[in-house]
Amino acid sequence: xxxxxxxxxxxxxxxxxxGKRFWGRTFAVLDAGFVxxxxxxxxxGAQSRFDKIIKIVRxxxxxxxxxxxxxxxxxxxxxxxGLAVAMANGAARTRKRLLILATSKKKFEATCSDLKGIDxxxxxxxxxxxxxxxxxxxxxxRRTFPSPLQTKSRFDSFWAGLPRVARxxxxxxxxxxxxxxxxxxxxxxxSHPLRRGRP
Length: 199
What we know:
five-stranded parallel sheet; globular
């Protein structure tokens, strides 16, 4: 059953340089049957960005934090990791599970020294396989879910056809809205269903 209980907060850069990886991470979450959430999903001028993030992080039992640029002048990503860790370890003791990604352990510890003792997952720019590998621990073992290789192959097919789909739908795939991003992925997954049950 999809819903809040299977929601995943995605904390990552939103710029064009990271664009394909953001597409890939969102694709992997949806392909595994989860619901992606992100700070950019809410457009509410009456609510501050901080309040939006707090609300989403609180509602998501799972979160993915890509700290690939944690040593740059923008510190939003480490800050949002801190929010999730605080909720998981605070007085409320919410049951949260986090995937923290970094490009090297040394860089991670230098940037987030207060998180020493927490082992980040080290990856080299393949968010699809890294995401699906982590999500496998939440799969129902009585059912067949996509493997990291399956999801990577499906994403490659999706990515190859995305420019054509974006032109037909009238949006810029390099700078999509949250609705356009999810709509394109949902459309692909519906037309390329993955068999879930055991053979």
